[in-house]
Amino acid sequence: MKVVELVDVSKIYQTEFYEVKALENVSLDVEEGGFVVIMGPSGSGKSTLLNLIGCLDKPTSGKVLINGVETINLSDKELTELRRDTIGFIFQTYNLIPTLSALENVELPMIFKGLSRHERRRRAKKLLSVVGLEREVDRKPKELSGGQQQRVAIARALANDPKILLCDEPTGNLDTKSGEQVMSIIKEQNEERGVTVILVTHDPTLAKYGNFVIRLRDGKIESIEGG
Amino acid sequence: MYLELARRNLQRAKVRSLLAIIGILIGVMAISAIGIFGESLKATVLESFEDVANELIVGPNYYAGYRYIDEKDVYQIEKLPYVESAIPVKSDTLLVESKKLKAYLQIYGLTEKDAEELFDAEKGIIRLKGSCVVGKNLAETWDIKVNSKITINSREFRVAGILEDTGARFDINPSTALIVSQDDFDKISDEGYTMVIVKADRLDHVDNVKKAIEERLNSREDKVYVFELSIILERINEAFSQINIFLMAIASISLLVAGVSILNIMLMSTIERTKEIGVMRAIGAYRTTILKIFLLEAAILGIIGSSIGSVLSLVGGYAIDYIILQNVKYVFQPGILFYLLLGFSVGLTTAVISGLYPAWRASRLEPIEALRFE
Asked: Taking CB atoms and an 8 Å cutoff, what residues of chain A touch B371?
């Protein structure tokens, strides 16, 4: 089953004096359980592609289907719910909420979903132990290392049991060892739980984790390897 | 949890939150304390008129050609239902001389019994047989003491007593009055009864007495006019309430300033937390959730500031009453609760209204734009 389907998608940023074609007629299918690595130089449209899949942005033309649902006509509320229930985000800069502890950060998406306090506590603790942070539950982000923060972010991304995990340069700010740790957790989620992973990076060493490697250049797909 | 999140966000910028709270606190304190003072002032003034509230003054209708009230009419008034007492008063403006001064003053002729009912003596006694009593103010300005001698219309009187200043009256002012017996009055003046001070047995019978007097005495012609003092009390009450509203409106300007400071603080906070808002929106927060968090922050500032402000306004009200009225007994009256609640609710409302725009702005941020914010 296709969890992500892009049909002839273009994204053009219009400024007062010129327009930027961030993506041009991109079509792409990602099957459930796939691990797709999207590579390309800066400005190639990687992040734009990820944002469109993550329902954070809308295409100028073309169709984006997530889990079989066409996103173009969804209201803000419906898009929010789609993101909350189907997609998990992992950002390069972790983006944890600084006032909340590790446990509370993981709980946050479950609060937005309306889970009971008991249920979300139980689940958040379990997820933190999956990423190896059972001892750090009460620590605030600033009391954690970069690698630990990114692991908390992974636990948060998995909070509502998403089908798709979108990773934007997840190891970009980490040392090699922490980066490998983070990648192995993501890979584990993909292999053991069947979570579809779409990962954007310009680090060529991450290509080995994907079933597919898509290379972008100037807003167009240059090549698709693997499969 | 949203409440907890809001609380922690405020704790992040402690000094800023504290300043916002102080702003609200001062505004609420100003409103409530002034409200308390106004209420105390009103109560103090009304209290001084309490004795005369159930009084009516009956006077001759000069416009219809009546100069005096007949003895027969006075008798009729006394016999009316709900009338507790009717005190007829003669008055005239006569030449008064003491050792040093002489002037034309208002002289009242009363029976000794009636004078005793209306006034108390501060010095000496109220005795009107061949003597007179004078008001405190008059005694001071004329340097009159008990047993001093004064001449009224060439007739000598010994001062038997000086009246206690029992607060304002509308019939005879106890601080400037000069009272002689009615017998003596007849010897120095030809004037008759120019006023009857009627006391109703209860405040709520004042209207009935007024109607009865008018029906009885004015059936054929308008011989007398009847003036209820309770009307004056109502007017005083209204006037003080208006003054109070005006003062509180001035005080609320300080709350307006506090509101602008909350608006400013929260707008700064929205900008600083743009990326965080983007993250929350990305992981499943509705626009309304963001709105709720920011409004809760404003409400927390409002609740803390208004609560402390309300408590401190009691201290403020106490201080103002002590300094200006030299009387603090009205600070802890149940009626004051209204001003505390008013200050609290105006403070809280100001905080929430000030938080509305920043909260709305935060909730309108597009997640993608917010996430890109550095």
From this structure: 56, 91, 95
